């Protein structure tokens, strides 16, 4: 499926910079450079949202029928604060929402007739509720019984046409939501989110165009609100976060104002400048070789919402460095660095950022065979946590107030996220390289950060994510890169696949103004320092 058309650019080097053909300049940090961070510890800090935690993605709802998928979700709930899980396909034919009645097998007239059946969706929601996780119910795709054409998405052939009859669709959605309320109670379902379709601005996901989508949204909105007006309904869930202004205007003019807004963005999603996307930033950052496209789209979306005085939540419920189905660089420390970088810049501008996606249990364009195969997930099919998963774990260790800082050799690719809370101080450092490819040898740099007096030097915690530390893909490669892990191999990898500290990797020195922490980190890579207060 040709999901995007994006600019392919070559690169040329000059001095200490990498100059892309589109003119974007990406700063590099040489091995002899020192990344120096000087926080203003006299400041109490600015409250921040942990928007990277709370919402996560699974490829399609049907995977949650599997025990291993449920085990991975339970792990995410425990370790990275997963509270809501989103997946498409609740109305897919593979969910049997229209299915035959076995009692009619011997009746030739009724044998092939179908009835509505919510058993599979209910089993999924039963499992999530039991885990303490609330679903984001994405009302797609079109059951075969209700389609208007044969267009489909994915290898699973999910139908992407508008329904044949809007009243029939309204009643279908209404029956579904009433069933949810009857089964789980209105107080539980009020904690859920309802999302109308997925990326309707792409022909590969919706054939009804913008007008057809807005009609779909209005019908679904009315159906859900007729069950209970307080249930939360949102959209437009468009790729590149398009259609925002039109969607807000339609909601205001058609008495169906969304309760929350949904956007999607990948850093290589610019499609030759992304002219239809909201964007706030330099023009050169609109290109896919810029490290700042996700941040620019997020700022642009936030600007539109603020100018419209929109008071609801904003969810960037799909995002990442690359939309490509096969991208081995996603399984490197560079992806972890990109996650930290982007969250340090724009985490305040949305209520949730849901990285795409949680698991390699996935088959939109083929079912993975190898242990690691460049897929979207932060967790492998065997339940092994990748560097991007550990990036989320480290983000969750940050405090609740962001502390301003200055420094030397800082750039949009090499910097830090500095916070504090009642327990102590936290600094999360990142070295990202927009031109890095899987298999490239990492560089290194020295890092130092000023620390105040009043800290407990006996309570220091230090973590790294790089080619050697907290990197299960490296461990797998060192074992021989087996496509199918034997039981003992899997047990070994599982045994070492926990976020592991490297407290000996940092040195803290006394200075005239307090203290200074000094350490080396790889580029690309992530490092985190936590220091508690005395007492």
Largest sheet features:
8 strands, parallel
- Give the tally of structural domains: 2
| CATH topology label of the largest domain | TIM Barrel
Query: Class by helix and strand content?
Result: alpha/beta
Poorly predicted segments: 1-27
Number of helices: 11
Percent of residues in beta strands: 25-35%
The CATH class name of the largest domain reads Alpha Beta
What is the total tally of β strands? 26
What would the principal axes of the Cα set say about the shape?
globular
Helix content: 10-25%
Task: Give an overview in words.
- The protein is α/β, with parallel strands linked by helices and 535 residues long.
- It contains 11 helices and 26 strands.
- The chain has an 8-stranded parallel sheet with strand order 6-7-10-13-14-15-16-17.
- It is globular, with a radius of gyration of 24 Å.
What characteristics describe this protein?
single chain; 535 residues; alpha/beta; Immunoglobulin-like; TIM Barrel; 8-stranded parallel sheet; 6-stranded antiparallel sheet; globular; disordered N terminus
What would you say about this model in short?
By secondary structure, the protein is an alpha/beta fold. Helices cover 25% and strands 26% of the residues. The chain is built from eleven helices and 26 strands.
């Amino acid at each position: 499926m040709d999901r995007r058309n994006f600019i392919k650019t070559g690169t040329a080097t000059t001095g200490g910079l990498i100059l892309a053909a589109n003119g974007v300049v990406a700063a590099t940090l040489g091995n002899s450079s020192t990344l120096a961070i000087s926080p203003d510890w006299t400041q109490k800090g600015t409250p921040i949202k942990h928007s990277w935690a709370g919402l996560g993605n699974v490829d399609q709802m049907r995977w949650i029928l599997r025990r291993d998928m449920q085990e991975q979700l339970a792990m995410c709930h425990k370790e990275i604060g997963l509270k809501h899980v989103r997946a498409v396909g609740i109305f897919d034919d593979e969910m049997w929402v229209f299915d035959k009645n076995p009692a009619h097998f011997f009746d030739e007239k009724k044998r092939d007739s179908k009835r509505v059946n919510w058993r599979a969706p209910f089993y999924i929601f039963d499992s999530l509720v039991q885990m303490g996780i609330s679903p984001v119910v994405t009302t797609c795709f079109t059951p075969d019984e209700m389609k208007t054409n044969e267009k489909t998405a994915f290898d699973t052939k999910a139908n992407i046409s508008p329904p044949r009859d809007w009243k029939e669709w309204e009643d279908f959605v209404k029956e579904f939501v009433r069933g949810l309320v009857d089964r789980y109670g209105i107080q539980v379902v009020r904690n859920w989110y309802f999302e109308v379709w997925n990326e309707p601005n792409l022909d590969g996901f919706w054939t009804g165009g913008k007008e057809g989508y807005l009609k779909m949204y209005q019908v679904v909105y009315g159906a859900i609100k007729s069950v209970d007006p307080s249930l939360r309904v949102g959209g437009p869930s468009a790729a590149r976060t398009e259609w925002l202004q039109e969607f807000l205007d339609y909601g205001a003019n058609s008495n169906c104002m969304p309760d929350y807004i949904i956007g999607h963005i990948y850093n290589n999603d610019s499609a030759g400048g992304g002219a239809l996307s909201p964007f706030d930033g330099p023009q050169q950052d609109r290109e896919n070789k810029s490290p700042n496209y996700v941040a620019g789209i997020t700022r642009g979306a936030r600007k539109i919402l603020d100018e419209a005085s929109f008071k609801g939540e904003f969810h960037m419920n799909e995002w990442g460095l690359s939309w490509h189905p096969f991208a081995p660089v996603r399984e490197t420390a560079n992806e972890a660095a990109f996650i930290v970088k982007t969250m340090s810049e724009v985490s305040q501008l949305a209520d949730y950022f849901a990285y795409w996606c949680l698991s390699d249990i996935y088959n939109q364009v083929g079912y993975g065979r190898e242990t690691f195969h460049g897929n979207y997930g932060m967790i492998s099919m065997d339940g092994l946590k990748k560097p991007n998963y550990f990036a989320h774990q480290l983000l969750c260790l940050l405090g609740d107030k962001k502390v301003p800082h200055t420094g030397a050799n800082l750039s949009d690719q090499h910097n830090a996220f500095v916070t504090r809370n009642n327990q102590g101080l936290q600094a999360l450092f990142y070295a990202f390289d927009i031109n890095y490819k899987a298999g490239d040898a990492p560089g290194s740099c020295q890092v130092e950060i000023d620390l105040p007096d009043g800290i407990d030097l006996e309570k220091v915690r230090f973590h790294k994510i790089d080619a050697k530390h907290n990197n299960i893909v490296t461990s797998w490669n060192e074992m021989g890169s087996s496509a199918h892990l034997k039981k003992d191999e899997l047990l070994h990898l599982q045994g070492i696949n926990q976020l592991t500290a490297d407290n000996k990797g940092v040195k803290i020195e006394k200075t005239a103004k307090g203290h200074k922490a000094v350490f080396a980190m790889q580029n690309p890579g992530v490092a985190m320092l936590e220091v508690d207060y005395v007492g």
